[in-house]
What does this fold into?
Amino acid sequence: QLQLVESGGGSVQPGGSLRLSCAASGSTSDYFHFAWFRQAPGKEREGVSCISLLNEFTYYVDSVKGRFTISRSTENAKKTVYLQMNSLKPEDTGDYFCAATFESSWFCSTSEKDYNFWGQGTQVSVSS
It folds into this structure.
């Protein structure tokens, strides 16, 4: 079992930056894929980025390419996955969720159905 705890959300003006963190505990394996999803008010949840811990393959949806960066840290035997969000836009507003799945393949996915561990979410608001 894997426990995920997100942090780092908040309110920023357009053009600002935030860094979200997802602290994972419960496993020492690197056979995991992690992903960040977001859900804007009144919209369906969408995947924005993912990372494979085994080979650090990363993927971004077009709307965040060049602005968001997903990365990982394994310091202190605790897996933490980050989402650095720069040049934020009002359309980036929403609840952001970290998700993970035990997976040995090299290429991660941003499809909800592929993930079975979820965090509680953290809120991001971008407005002037």
Remarks:
- The mean pLDDT is 94.
